[in-house]
Amino acid sequence: MERRNDISHALVALMKGVVYKDKHPKQWTTILGAYAAINSHFAQVGLEVFLDESEGFTFLKQVPNEDEVDPLPRLIPKRPLGFLTSLICVLLRKRLAEHDASTSEPRLIISEEDIFDMVKAFIPEKTNEAKLHDDIRRNIARVAEMGFLDELKKAEETTYEVRRIIKAAFNADALSDLANLLEGYRNYAAAIA
Amino acid sequence: MDYEYIKSLKVNNPALRIISSDSAPLLLSFFHQVFIEPNRRSIPHEEILSLLEDELFRLREIYGEDSHKMSAKQYLVLWCDNNSYLSKRYPERGDEPVYDLTPSVAKAMEWIADLKPKAFVGTESRLLTVFNLLREIRSKASDSPERRIQELERTRDEIDREIDLINKGGYQPFSETQIRERFIEAEETARRLVADFRQVEQNVRDLDREARHLFVTTDAPKGDVLEGVFERRENITASDQGRSFRAFWEFLMTPARQQELTELLEGILVLEALEDLAKNAFLPDAKYALLDAGRSVYQTTNRLADQLRRYIDDRVHLENKRIMEIIRDIEQKSLELKNNPPADFNFSIDDIKPELDLTMARTLHKANPPEDFSGVMIEEGVVEIDVSALFSREDIDYGLLSDRVNQLLRDYDQITLPEVINRYPVTKGVGEIIAYFEVGHDSERVAVNDETRDIISIFVDGRERKLRVPRLIFTR
Q1: Nearest residue to B467 via CA among B407, B378, B391, B398
Q2: How far apart are CA A102 and CA B405, in angstroms?
Q3: B354 closest CB neighbour out of A76, A103, A177
Q4: What Rg do the C-alpha atoms of chain A give, in angstroms?
């Protein structure tokens, strides 16, 4: 009975979002222990439990089945991202890769100021710096809402931790989709110029 | 130690820089007070900030407002710059960064501590230490068992002689001086050991960084890279540093040794000769300090192993490389699009959770029926509720209020409280109004008319509240 209860909690936690090893140790252990059972539970509704043990997170992924005869409707929505939001995500993803390559610190902490500096190189210089910052700040909030950034409450300046889940969301496939898309825009821009 | 070397040290070595910097007194005394004396290795951000604020406040009281002009926050940022004085890290969990001294600064502090003229310089105990070390080397360095047996026999003779002497009534315990001398030396050695650990930790970190760098940048065949890394690890474990650390750790981690250390200290610290020294003794904490330090060295080594595992995993490694390539591509294209940012941009990724928004789960609007109080008997009673929050006066500036009133009284002979508030709207709630009464009362140039009441509106959290108060009139 105890075990069944644990599994129910783990199922609900997954339905609600990403389960992290550090944030939800109890659910994490349950999922590790009963992975097969939990995965087959979600397989019924066209989902798959994506688990990255070394990064310490797990979440539900939509199994693509559009090509099947009788496709299930999607349970996990696609989230449209604006250009700036996408760019911020990509740059954060890059930061994380560089971070892992250079230090043994497990967490990547980044200040709002850092993000401003990263992004500014890709935005036409506007005279109105304040408006630009507001723009970027709004997009940072969107990225945080998606779960890729966590604001650190105790830091004196606005500071975020980059959640490692961004690695799974912006994997090679998603990134090359984005690169192809940009290729199209670039060609278009070149054609009308 | 040639000219160029010293010259470059003066510029590049944080230990020398800190000693010659203008704010050395602040830096060193503060670091001593918060890190060395209580023997701490990590202090959370908020705590160190408030400690520093207190210290700055204290110094400004003594040396005037002009000394140490920067704020505590600015100092902290400056000291962490390039991690030259303080290293700032985020712990495994939690939102708050922690600070520790860098190895070079720890070294500088040791050196400064050494400069202080000592009450007495123990010469006997140190000479004996040298002798004992030499003896130990001679008796154990030789491979020949005969030699070792000879040595042991000599020791046995010595012991026999001492027993003999004691039996004849010639027992000579350590004098107080001899006890103190030895204790001070033990303390100094332990202190130095803990300080040196910051360096050991730094060395391991450096090794880790190098290895990671190698994984990412190199195009060499994986076999070569791994060989390089293992060789380096091998070198480290086989190096004097590595062996000594392992032996140290094994020694420290043996329960019997830990027990012995605890018992030794318990027995020694109560000695009368050490009464004044025992109070601020470093040794009782030293064990924990050493365990802490050793543990972080081990943790770093473990993380290196993790990283190694990932590197060996082909899939991850290739994916990483590919991802960096794509990201560079994206950056390149975004730069080209810089002045024509894509309109109607159409990119999306899968969300990371299913969307559950069940229409039927929403409840209908339910109107609250009016409460029916008929039939409820109202009884008189006393309730104890903490209403202090309502009247919080912590951040009310009495001086400011009094200035306002005086300002207005230059133009008017007398003025009522509502008129004052009309001019200066209330921002701090009911407490501010009460404060006006106090200010008036203290100045004694005030009339309170209990018969007449004034209505005052204040805004609390954006909502208007009305208060009825006795008429308060300020006069010149």
Answers
A1: B391
A2: 62
A3: A76
A4: 19
Query: Do A169 and B350 contact (CB within 8 A), yes or no?
Result: yes
Question: Which pLDDT tens digit goes with each residue over B239-296?
Answer: 777 777 778 878 877 888 888 888 888 888 888 878 877 777 777 777 777 777 777 7
In tens, the pLDDT along B458-467 reads 776 667 778 8
Q: Does B460 touch chain A if contact means CB atoms closer than 8 Å?
A: no
d(CA B374, CA B283): 75
For residue A81, which residues of chain B lie inside 8 Å, CB to CB? 347-349
* Prediction ipTM score: 0.85
Given phi > 0 = left and psi -120 to 50 = alpha, else beta, which region is A12?
A: alpha
Say how far apart CA B54 and CA B56 lie, in whole Å: 5
- C-alpha distance from B37 to closest chain A C-alpha (Å): 26
Dihedral sign of CA atoms B320, B324, B325, B330 in order:
positive
A155: nearest CA in chain B?
B96
- Beta carbons within 8 Å of B351's beta carbon, 6+ residues apart: A76, A77, A78, A79, A146
Buried b (16+ CB within 10 A) or exposed e, A47-78: bebebeeebbbbbbbbeeeeeeeeeeebbbee
The two three-digit tokens of residue B396, written as one number: 């009310």
Give how far B364 is from chain A: nearest CA, Å: 24
- State mean pLDDT over B403-410: 82
Report H helices in A56-111. Answer: 83-102
Q: Provide the sign of the torsion angle of the four alpha carbons B23, B27, B33, B34, taken in this order.
A: positive
Cβ contact (<8 Å) for B353 and A17? yes
DSSP per-residue string spanning B306-349: HHHHHHH-HHHHHHHHHHHHHHHHHHHHHHHTTTSPPSS--EEE
The reported pLDDT for the residue numbered A115 is: 92
Q: Sort strands A19-20 and A57-62 into parallel, antiparallel or unpaired.
A: antiparallel
Q: Which two tokens stand for residue B137?
A: 């080397």
Number of Cβ pairs closer than 8 Å across A and B?
168
- In chain B, the N- to C-terminal Cα span, in Å, equals 77
Alpha-carbon gap, residue B363 to B359, rounded angstroms: 9
Find out whether B390 and B429 touch, Cβ atoms under 8 Å: yes
Q: Do A156 and B45 touch (CB under 8 A)?
A: yes
A185 close to B339: Cβ distance less than 8 angstroms:
no
User: Does B210 contact chain A (CB < 8 Å)?
Assistant: no
Distance separating alpha carbons of residues B321 and B325, to the nearest angstrom: 6
* Phi, then psi, of A48 in degrees rounded to 5: -135, 145
